[in-house]
Design brief:
heterodimer, A: about 110 residues, alpha/beta, two-stranded parallel sheet, 4 helices, B: alpha/beta, 6-stranded mixed sheet, 5-stranded parallel sheet, elongated
Chain lengths: ~110, ~400
């Protein structure tokens, strides 16, 4: 599992370099995100464009981080972009597309956040 | 730092001066014992179980090579490291001794420091090997204990599943339960609520294995008919049934994500088995599949998101429908849909729908059996990545 991060003044961009976000990497992934949150990051944009597949452990690690960040109405959030087909259908099936802030693309994310 | 007793070294040599020299070199650090020929050396090795044996090749009454062979052949002595003494020029002897299983050789005339250094190294190596063997034995014991614990947990989990015996006269039920480890995070149940209603629920705790199974058991307990959470008696003594949406909302409060750092998905339905009317709620869960007698499929997926997200989720909705005589209703967990082929393509909802449609003519039980067969064949031996469950009913009105 490989995470690339880039700090912008409005948020931290985290790109997940893995094809499958599943139980083999979900714990590591969750720990990495938690580390960033512990360091004080409050707005994270997660780029999942390389992820083809996500299962409940992957979803669980994201929900865990979302819960940590989205504690009030202060704009702290875990936002997503670059969601691929299978992953999007999982979000729709579970109605998590109505819980997470999802951007179609990185450019629409940047436009909205600046 | 554990204190081990001093290592014991057996010296086998027919020449007394050699024995004395070796004792002299070794006795400061080690306990020593001696034997004057191969025969006596073998007896001493078996009886005393030394930590190392130094033996000379040229001895009467069983030479060093034969002793070495005998030591390696006997289970009581074959693990004891052996160093043999040999004259400098005897290359053939060196090769033979090593091939027979000796760990090292010392050339004569020997150097005291060299003897000590080689002995020390081999004693250390042997100690490490002994500790490893002991650790393995402990590990096997722990594994056996864990295995029997898991087996017991697996039996308990299976005992919670609904009885296959039909207890509603106009309804048939058939189900399949496959945790991907010995216990799983899926649970389902069929409960008669009153004279005309049953509820069916299926729950999938995220993840799998022991933690998921424990949470599944808690939800099962919460939803017990006597618990007051799915039905309660009013002041007239009649059962009032909680609506699917309210059951889901209650569970959402009882099991917030923060409690166990997990969420679960659930489909909960209340069915009037005298009229066929039903109401249901799918919380982050795959839709119910309704297959009529003609083979037409309708999906029922109204509801909300995962149980445990509280305010973060959209408002929980409830869906309704009506079953006609001969209709089949399928409840399942996503592990069934996500079962992958060897090239990692999931079975998928469409394939599942097509499968139940094609099996319509079979009895309910046979159709469940055959759907599962199809999924297993599709997986073609690929390991299950998630628990999967299937529950289906057929109603006659």
């Amino acid at each position: 599992m490989d995470l690339e991060t880039e700090k912008y003044d409005k948020f931290l961009l985290v790109s997940l370099n893995a094809k499958r976000l599943d139980s083999s990497i979900s714990r590591e992934f969750e720990t990495a995100l938690n580390d960033w949150i512990a360091k004080g990051e409050t707005r994270i944009l997660l780029d999942l464009s390389l992820v083809d597949f996500m299962d409940s452990s992957g979803m669980g690690s994201m929900v865990s981080c979302l819960k940590k960040l989205k504690t009030g109405n202060n704009g702290d959030d875990l936002m997503l972009c670059g969601i691929t087909e299978q992953v999007l259908s999982l979000f729709k099936l579970t109605r998590m597309d109505r819980v997470f802030t999802i951007f179609d693309s990185m450019s629409s994310a940047f436009k909205a956040l600046y | 730092m554990q204190n081990y007793p001093r290592p014991k070294i057996l010296i086998v040599d027919d020449v007394p001066i050699n024995r004395m020299l070796l004792i002299h070199v070794l006795e400061i650090q080690y306990d020593t014992l001696t034997a004057e020929d191969g025969e006596k050396g073998l007896e001493a090795a078996i009886a005393e179980q030394p930590d190392l044996i130094i033996l000379d090749i040229h001895m009467p009454n069983m030479d060093g090579f034969e002793l070495l062979e005998r030591l390696k052949a006997d289970t009581l002595t074959r693990k004891i490291p052996v160093i043999f003494l040999t004259a400098d020029t005897e290359t053939e002897a060196k090769i033979k001794g090593l091939k027979l299983g000796a760990v090292d050789f010392i050339t004569k005339p020997f150097n005291a420091e060299e003897v000590l250094a080689r002995v020390h190294n081999h004693i250390q190596l042997d100690l490490t090997a002994k500790l490893l063997r002991q650790a393995n034995v402990r590990l096997r014991q722990q594994k056996a204990l864990l295995g029997s614990g898991l087996q017991a947990a697996s039996e308990i989990q299976k005992a919670l599943l609904p009885n296959q015996v039909i207890y509603i006269p106009n309804m048939r039920l058939s189900w399949y339960f496959q945790p991907c480890e010995r216990v799983g995070g899926d649970i389902f149940n069929v409960i008669q609520l009153d004279d005309s209603h049953i509820c069916i629920y299926i729950i999938d705790v995220c993840g799998h294995g022991i933690p998921a199974a424990m949470i599944a058991s808690l939800t099962f307990q919460y939803l017990a008919p006597s618990g007051g959470n799915i039905r309660f008696k009013d002041i007239h003594g009649n059962y009032q049934l909680r609506s699917p949406a309210s059951v889901v909302k209650d569970l959402d409060s009882e099991f917030p994500f923060e409690r166990f750092n997990r969420y679960f998905t659930m489909a909960y339905a209340v069915i009037n088995f005298t009229t066929g009317d039903f109401s249901y709620c799918c919380a982050g869960h795959p839709p119910l599949v309704l297959l009529d007698k003609a083979g037409t499929v309708a999906l029922h997926g109204k509801g909300g998101t995962f149980v445990g997200l509280g305010d973060m989720g959209p408002t929980v909705e409830q869906g309704t429908g009506t079953l006609s005589s001969g209709d089949r209703l399928y409840f399942y967990t996503d592990g069934l849909i996500e079962q992958e082929s060897p090239d990692e393509i999931p079975f998928g909802q469409e394939r599942f729908i097509a499968a139940v449609q094609s099996l319509r003519a079979y009895s309910l039980e046979k159709s469940v059996e055959k759907v599962i067969e199809k999924i297993k064949r599709y997986g073609n031996g690929k390991a299950y990545i998630d628990d999967f469950s299937l529950l289906s009913l057929e109603i006659t009105l």
